[in-house]
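S1.2 Input.
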Amino acid sequence: MQCMSTIADINTNFAGFFKQFGTIKRLRIGRNRKTGKSRHFGFIEFESPEVAKVVSECMHNYLLFEHLLQVQLVPPERVHPKLWKGVTHRYKPLDWVKIERCPHDKERTLEEHKKLVERIMKTDKRRRKRIEASGIDYDCPEIIGNQPTSKKIRFDEE
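S1.3 Output.
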């Protein structure tokens, strides 16, 4: 949730900064689809081309938000038709906890549970050997997991 407010603040600040030159028709800032962070490029369309020319002359190599701006005037014939597609779309961050919860909490068969426990025990055994080999005198707590204790274990009815 904090990410959205930061993105909205940056868009508002960015638009507010360039509004001093003239009316902004459209503003698009490139964002990473996964994280929503800025990709450090953007496009601004002004109402009049004269304003855009003044902005490109004044703001080229200007330090803004700790980055040097590289401002270039793009003629209308070079603008891609899909450039402004999705400009009004608000970025909604993905809930990765919810996404990862499904495979983690899935129902497991008895065989899948045994395989999971064996892998955990093998990793623990390797860890204990590394601790012992490094000369550390440490009594690791035992892992209890040989019996299926989860409610999510599915037994095949035969």
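S1.4 Remarks. Residues 97-154 form one domain.
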